[in-house]
Amino acid sequence: MHLVLRSVKYGIRARASLTDQGFTILKESTAQLCWRQSKYLSGYAKMHEKLVADGTIIRKDERLGRFVKDVAFKSPSAAAAVVLGRQSNRCTDGKLKRAANRTALGQRDPVAEGASGLRGC
Length: 121
What we know:
Elements lengths: L2 E5 L4 E8 L2 E4 L4 E3 L10 H11 L3 E3 L4 E4 L3 E3 L2 H9 L5 H15 L17
Antiparallel strand pairs: 1-2, 2-3, 3-7, 4-6, 5-6
């Protein structure tokens, strides 16, 4: 079962799954090309910058990037931050964590097509 993180406002649609390596954003998912917040030495900002610099996230258009391979993150928060190009809020993290937990238990989650109710996006 795949989880979907999306922001209609920004045209982002990232598919993810739970793997042995962690919370994995799947190849062809879209993400913000540039970090949208000031770079106040955020670990997530550095992670985003590294993925763009090493070609893991490539330019799709002027605003969006595209993952060229699957990328594992240690947490749903890290994955959401990199995809959204900003620190993610607790509402988003909570939806992703609940969806991930239900997926791990083999349950269907109505929110899994979700975290689409992103506040501030």
